[in-house]
Structures are given as structure tokens and as C-alpha cells.
């Protein structure tokens, strides 16, 4: 027992010594902590204008976020053989000396995001970072990236370079055989060329959303056979080449929303048998080619909302069988017999909702699920518009014309009916109402017989005019 206890104590000595060393060498403006044999140094929001002269040799993580650092000199951090994570976000870095990160042989994650004055990086900036796996260059207002900048990073897996000023996909990405994630959104990229992504055979996620992409060249993603998520939404694409996505057999998410596409071509999705999410929303799509979605049997959701679709053919899905959810709202749907299949599918699957009809006028404003399609004697579908011309729906309320006719008839009957003596009106329930009706008429007819003659003389032309008006309203 004594031997076992001694063994435990001896094993704990190195850990204790490492903890003491971490705390003892902690820079004055920073706080240091240890956990699970790691030494973390936090210098964020410390008001630093330069990098501290010394860090604990055992440091595994250093956080220098939100300070006033402007320049990183050569070997800015000395030699830190255990350092794996270094964060310099939200500083005022304007220049990084080539070799600034020498002495950090095990660095795996480097964060330089939100240094808006950086704008330019030397090709040798990341020399000696052969184990770096994640690099964050977001929001540095970089105009370009030197071709050889990332060549020193053979182990790089993830690159975050969004919110920059690139006008094209950085050529430095080419040949990064181990890169799996590239975030290039919210920039000024105008095209994806056929050579932009060469050699990225392990790339699994590519985000190019919210740029200015107008052109995607044929075969641009030809080397990206492992790609699973491709985001091209909120760009300026008006058309795509037929083989734009050829070879992307593992693609699971494709987002083309928020562009200017007018047609969905059958050839686009021919190779995308594994696709699960397809976004085509917020475009100007008015036509979907027959068989466009025929290979997408594993699709979980198809977004076609906010387009210009008036009709969608069942042939767009054949011969496949789509089982996912379909989003079709904010389209000018014409709910005639061409959409009867969709109405039946809504009833049967419950995976479609909110398909408001814009036409024909007889069903405008209704949801497609509420539209009734009748059959002719030959068994053919009859459009709702045709039904309204020949039949009226049961229980419908009278139209404006019928209401006007009834009011004219009521008024005439009251004008021509014999007047009730004043003393009898007290026994009639509607006496006050009738009196108010005639208050606006001349008071003739309430006096002697001579006045009754005048009333009849005036009533005959009035009766003719009223009959003419009523007859005309009935014809309309």
C-alpha cells in the first residue's frame, strides 16, 4: 500500500510543477489557469499595445483578443513548444513580419479575425506552421491572398476568410489537399472559374454566399468530389452551365436561393443522387424543366418559394418519388387542372402547406388544398373557372346585383301600397320605421283625394323607370 501511494505522489509531481511554472511566469496584465495538464493564458481586453515579452513555456493556449496590438515582429511569441491555440482577434494589426510565428511548432489554431487594417499578408507570413489545422482571417479587409501564402500549411483543414474584399476565389487555395472547410462568404467574388478549386479533393463544405458571383464556369467543382455542402445563395446568378455540379455525387446541401435564376434545368442535378436539401427560393423561376428533380429520391426539403411559378408539372419529379417537404408559398399559382396532382399530393402526404392561388379569379385567395376539381361526363378534369360559369356553389350568398334588385322591389312596393291612416299606425310594429322611410318624400298623399291623384300621376313614370333599372340589373 505504501508503495502504491508513493507511486501516485511521484506521478503527480510533474503536474504540480507544471502548474506552478504556468502561474509563476504569467505576464502581469494576464491571468493564467491550469486544467487537465494544460496552461491557458488570457490577456484579452487588457489594453496591451504590444505582445508581452514572456509567456509561460508550458502555455497551450494564449488569448490576446480585443487589445491594441499593431505590429507583430519576428518570433513575436518566443519559443513555446506546447502552444496549440493562439487568438489575436479584434486588434489593430496592420503588419505581420514574416516569421512572426516561428517558435510555435505545434500551433494548430490561429485566429486573426477582425483586424480591419491588415489588408495584406506576406507570402512567408505562416512559415514554420506545418501543423496548423485552422486559420481564421475573417473581416481583415484583405484584397487578395498571395499564391504561396498557404503552401506552408500542408495540414490545414479549415479556412475562414469571410467578410473580406476578394474579387475572385483566392488562388492560394489550389492544391490544399487536406482542406475540408472553406468559408468565403460576404465578399466581392464575381466568378468561380474552372481552375479556382483545383486539387481540393477532400473539401466537404464550401460557402460562397452573399458575394457578387455572376458566373460559375463549367466543371468548376470537378475536383471537389467529396463536397457535401455548397452554398451559392444571395449572389447574382442568372444562369448556370448544364454541368455546373457534375461529379458532386456526395453533395447533401445545395443552396442557390436569392439569385436571379429564371429556369430550373434538368441537367443541373443529374449527379446529385445524395442531395437532401435543395434551396431555389427567392429567384425569378417561372419554369421547371421536365425531369429536373427526377434523380433526387433522397431529398428531404425542396424550397421553391418566392419565385414566379404559376404552374409546376408532376413530370418535373418523374420518374423519381419525392418524399420530402415542398415549400411553394409566395408564387403566383394558377390553380387549374394542371395542379390537380399537387392538390392530391397535399391531401395524401401532408408535406406541403400554404399554396395560395392567384388565379383564376374564381379561386383567387384560396389555398390549393381548398380548391374542388370536378369531372366532365367524359371523366376529364374541369377547371374551377369553367365550373363557375355553369354552376353556382351551394350556400353562396346573393351577389351585389341581387341585393340591389331586392331593394328596388321593396321600395316600389312601399311607394305603391295604400297608405295606412295615421291612427292605425300605432298598432303596427313597423310603423315608426315606415314613417321614417317616407319622411324624405314630399308630403303629398297625406291630404285629400286631389293629392292622391298627383301621387298616382307621378308614380307611373317612376314605376317605368324602376322596372327598366331592375330589368337591366337582372340582365347584368
UniProtKB/TrEMBL annotation:
<feature type="domain" description="LRRNT">
    <location>
        <begin position="25"/>
        <end position="61"/>
    </location>
</feature>
<keyword id="KW-0677">Repeat</keyword>
<dbReference type="InterPro" id="IPR000483">
    <property type="entry name" value="Cys-rich_flank_reg_C"/>
</dbReference>
<dbReference type="GO" id="GO:0007601">
    <property type="term" value="P:visual perception"/>
</dbReference>
<keyword id="KW-0716">Sensory transduction</keyword>
<dbReference type="InterPro" id="IPR032675">
    <property type="entry name" value="LRR_dom_sf"/>
</dbReference>
<keyword id="KW-0433">Leucine-rich repeat</keyword>
<feature type="domain" description="LRRCT">
    <location>
        <begin position="331"/>
        <end position="377"/>
    </location>
</feature>
<dbReference type="InterPro" id="IPR050541">
    <property type="entry name" value="LRR_TM_domain-containing"/>
</dbReference>
<keyword id="KW-0272">Extracellular matrix</keyword>
<dbReference type="InterPro" id="IPR000372">
    <property type="entry name" value="LRRNT"/>
</dbReference>
<dbReference type="GO" id="GO:0005886">
    <property type="term" value="C:plasma membrane"/>
</dbReference>
<keyword id="KW-0325">Glycoprotein</keyword>
<keyword id="KW-0964">Secreted</keyword>
<dbReference type="Pfam" id="PF13855">
    <property type="entry name" value="LRR_8"/>
</dbReference>
<protein>
    <recommendedName>
        <fullName>Nyctalopin</fullName>
    </recommendedName>
</protein>
<comment type="similarity">
    <text>Belongs to the small leucine-rich proteoglycan (SLRP) family. SLRP class IV subfamily.</text>
</comment>
<dbReference type="GO" id="GO:0098794">
    <property type="term" value="C:postsynapse"/>
</dbReference>
<dbReference type="GO" id="GO:0030425">
    <property type="term" value="C:dendrite"/>
</dbReference>
<dbReference type="InterPro" id="IPR003591">
    <property type="entry name" value="Leu-rich_rpt_typical-subtyp"/>
</dbReference>
<dbReference type="InterPro" id="IPR001611">
    <property type="entry name" value="Leu-rich_rpt"/>
</dbReference>
<keyword id="KW-0844">Vision</keyword>
<feature type="signal peptide">
    <location>
        <begin position="1"/>
        <end position="18"/>
    </location>
</feature>
<keyword id="KW-0732">Signal</keyword>
<keyword id="KW-0654">Proteoglycan</keyword>
Amino acid at each position: 500500500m505504501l508503495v502504491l501511494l508513493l507511486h501516485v505522489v511521484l506521478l503527480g509531481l510533474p503536474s504540480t510543477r507544471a502548474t506552478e511554472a504556468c502561474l509563476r511566469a504569467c505576464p502581469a496584465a494576464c491571468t493564467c489557469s491550469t486544467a487537465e495538464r494544460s496552461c491557458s493564458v488570457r490577456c484579452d481586453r487588457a489594453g496591451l499595445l504590444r505582445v508581452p515579452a514572456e509567456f509561460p513555456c508550458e502555455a497551450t493556449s494564449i488569448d490576446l483578443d480585443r487589445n491594441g496590438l499593431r505590429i507583430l515582429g519576428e518570433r513575436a511569441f518566443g519559443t513555446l513548444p506546447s502552444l496549440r491555440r493562439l487568438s489575436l482577434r479584434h486588434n489593430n494589426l496592420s503588419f505581420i513580419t514574416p516569421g512572426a510565428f516561428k517558435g510555435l511548432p505545434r500551433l494548430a489554431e490561429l485566429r486573426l479575425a477582425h483586424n480591419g487594417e491588415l489588408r495584406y499578408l506576406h507570402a512567408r507570413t505562416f512559415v514554420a506552421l506545418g501543423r496548423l489545422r485552422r486559420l481564421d482571417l475573417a473581416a481583415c479587409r484583405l484584397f487578395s491572398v498571395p499564391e504561396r501564402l498557404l503552401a506552408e500549411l500542408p495540414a490545414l483543414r479549415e479556412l475562414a476568410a469571410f467578410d473580406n474584399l476578394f474579387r475572385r476565389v483566392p488562388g492560394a487555395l489550389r492544391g490544399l489537399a487536406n482542406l475540408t472547410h472553406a468559408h468565403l462568404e460576404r465578399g466581392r467574388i464575381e466568378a468561380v472559374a474552372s481552375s479556382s478549386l483545383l486539387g481540393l479533393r477532400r473539401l466537404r463544405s464550401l460557402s460562397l454566399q452573399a458575394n457578387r458571383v455572376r458566373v460559375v464556369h463549367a466543371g468548376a467543382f470537378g475536383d471537389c468530389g467529396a463536397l457535401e455542402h455548397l452554398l451559392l445563395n444571395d449572389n447574382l446568378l442568372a444562369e448556370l452551365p448544364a454541368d455546373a455540379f457534375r461529379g458532386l455525387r456526395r453533395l447533401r446541401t445545395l443552396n442557390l436561393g436569392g439569385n436571379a435564376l429564371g429556369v430550373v434545368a434538368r441537367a443541373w442535378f443529374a449527379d446529385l443522387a445524395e442531395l437532401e436539401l435543395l434551396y431555389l427560393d427567392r429567384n425569378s423561376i417561372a419554369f421547371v424543366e421536365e425531369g429536373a428533380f427526377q434523380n433526387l429520391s433522397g431529398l428531404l426539403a425542396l424550397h421553391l418559394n418566392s419565385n414566379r411559378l404559376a404552374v409546376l408539372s408532376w413530370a418535373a419529379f418523374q420518374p423519381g418519388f419525392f418524399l420530402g417537404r415542398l415549400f411553394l408559398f409566395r408564387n403566383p399559382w394558377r390553380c387549374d387542372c394542371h395542379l390537380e396532382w399537387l392538390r392530391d399530393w397535399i391531401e395524401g402526404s401532408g408535406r406541403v402547406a400554404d399554396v395560395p392561388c392567384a388565379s383564376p379569379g374564381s379561386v383567387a385567395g384560396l389555398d390549393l388544398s381548398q380548391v374542388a376539381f370536378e369531372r366532365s361526363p367524359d371523366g376529364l378534369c374541369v377547371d374551377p373557372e369553367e365550373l363557375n360559369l355553369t354552376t353556382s356553389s351551394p350556400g353562396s350568398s346573393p351577389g351585389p346585383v341581387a341585393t340591389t334588385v331586392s331593394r328596388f322591389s321593396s321600395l316600389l312596393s312601399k311607394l305603391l301600397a295604400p297608405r295606412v291612416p295615421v291612427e292605425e299606425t300605432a298598432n303596427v310594429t313597423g310603423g315608426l320605421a315606415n314613417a321614417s322611410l317616407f319622411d324624405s318624400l314630399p308630403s303629398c298623399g297625406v291630404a285629400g283625394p286631389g293629392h292622391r291623384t298627383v301621387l298616382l300621376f307621378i308614380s307611373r313614370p317612376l314605376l317605368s323607370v324602376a322596372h327598366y333599372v331592375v330589368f337591366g340589373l337582372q340582365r347584368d
